[in-house]
Specification:
It is a single chain. By secondary structure, the chain is mostly helical. It is built from ten helices and no strands.
Length: 237
């Protein structure tokens, strides 16, 4: 274990040792705010699919989509590297509102039929499921305790789109598996989300954390690629 991992583990142990009710309250707010983001994205996609004039506007205004995408990436990076500055009210709420607006617009612009609709709906259900889990426990979230909530969210999403759409079976399966995997990763990641710049939930802000979590998901992809590279090198030599 390298020095970074040892330091991360030590800080996480300090953090997990704080009052359980403070920790669970923070997670409730965090998952609820994430659920709001994807719920709004699902609603906007619904209007984009049912109202041709709205879809035409989205397709024609590609410059707005480009600006929104760039602003989305910029906000995530700024919040990640200057978290302590954005944590102050009302800047945290203003940043969250702007982030949600550009996120929803970007998703609506790039949405393509039932697949994107299923992804945002599944993410909404998953976030609400983890929110429900945080409501039922005063302890830190664990893989064992969250299994029923994550699997339940995956099965609920699968059942809804199996009955309500004509999406291919294998598409339903891989999207469901992706959501379940993401759910377990969120349980793991939120244990370390605050560690690094703040060791106390009272000093952290759920609005800002609901933005930072996206960059952590991007880091997950790079970690997976790094681990795959190590496996291939090991098998080669």
């Amino acid at each position: 274990m390298n020095d970074y991992e040892q330091g991360r583990e030590t800080e996480s142990q300090k953090f997990i040792g704080e009052r359980p009710n403070v920790r669970s309250v923070f997670l409730r707010k965090l998952y609820f705010l994430v659920a709001v983001q994807f719920f709004l994205a699902t609603i906007v996609q619904y209007f984009a699919g049912d109202f041709e004039s709205f879809r035409t506007f989205l397709n024609d205004q590609w410059i707005i989509a480009l600006v929104a995408g760039c602003l989305l990436a910029l906000l995530i990076l700024l919040v990640y590297f200057f978290r302590s500055s954005f944590r102050r009210a009302p800047l945290n709420v203003i940043t969250y509102v702007i982030f949600v607006d550009v996120l929803v617009y970007t998703i609506a612009y790039f949405s393509s039929g039932d697949l994107s609709y299923m992804v945002t709906t599944s993410l909404t259900i998953l976030s609400l499921s983890l929110f429900a889990y945080a409501l039922t426990t005063r302890l830190d979230l664990t893989f064992l305790g969250g299994t029923i909530y994550v699997l339940g969210a995956g099965l609920a999403s699968y059942g809804i789109f199996l009955i309500g759409t004509d999406m291919p079976f294998f598409t339903l399966v891989w999207v469901t598996l992706l959501m379940v995997t993401l759910g377990f990763y969120l349980i793991y990641d939120t244990r370390f989300l605050i560690v690094g710049q703040s060791l106390n939930s009272d000093n952290e802000d759920p609005f800002i954390s609901s933005i930072i979590i996206y960059l952590d998901i991007v880091f997950l992809v790079f970690r997976l690629l790094e681990n795959l590279g190590k496996v291939f090198k090991r098998n080669r030599y």
